[in-house]
Input
Amino acid sequence: MNLALYGPPGSGKGTQAQRLGDRFQLDHVSSGDILRAERKAGTELGRKVEEIMKRGELVPDEIVGELIQKKIQQCHAEGRGVIFDGYPRNMRQLQRVEALLKVLDAQLDCAVTLDIDPEKLTERLTSRRVCDQCQHVYNLISHSPKVEGQCDQCGGRLIQRNDDRPEAIRRRLVEYREQTEPMLRDLDNRGRLHRIAADRSIDEVWNDLSGLIERLQKG
Ligand code: AMP
Output
């Protein structure tokens, strides 16, 4: 089974995708995490995307497409399904991933979007902290770590992403509206999109989301 999870920045998509991966034994493929790993490793590609990401703009389709393609081929060869987090993010990326899955005799079985009023997101994003080791996500208001500045899971250091600042947040929300929403409308028109209200606690969203995937799995 291959799933894609959507939602504007700050909708809780990364947290829910991590849980889906664990619960349904799917590989969690986050394009943002893959790009951040390239930056952290200081690769040539990482240096190329650094400034674009800092501004909150989308990285060119070709760069993300190649990274994701490698990952999909690897998961497919090992017989594992994928939960896509943050990919595809526009019509061109959707067409690319659908074509690739078709060649592998697979498909995007389900797309879910987390619905939330963008007005509520800026506060969520500015209070977000991420572990610099295992990428576990915290929120200083609703999901704070037991020890300040330290990851509960691995003891790593909690940092603020450099695109979780007001200027970059605004840009990311614009990218979402202009690039991702038209793609979601296309999936919706084809009857492939499920919507879940995300203006609730992590556990409430999780109950609806996991229930939906269980029902879809049973067919
Ligand atoms: P995310 O962690 O999903 O919020 O992504 C963080 C940043 O990585 C985005 O603001 C983009 O700069 C870049 N990025 C992640 N996924 C994609 C994608 N599918 N296409 C283009 N850029 C992406």
User: Anything to note?
Assistant: Residues 9, 31-32, 35, 52-53, 56-59, 64, 86-87, 89, 93, 163, 172 surround adenosine monophosphate (CB under 6 Å).
